[in-house]
Amino acid sequence: MPKKFDSDVRAEAVRRLQEAMPAYRSRTAAVAAVAREFGVGHESLRRWYVQDARPGSTSQGQPRVRLEEENRRLREEIAILRAAASYFLSERSSRREVDGTAEPLWPPRVSGAESRSAELQ
Question: Would the pLDDT of 39 be above 60?
Answer without folding.
Answer: yes
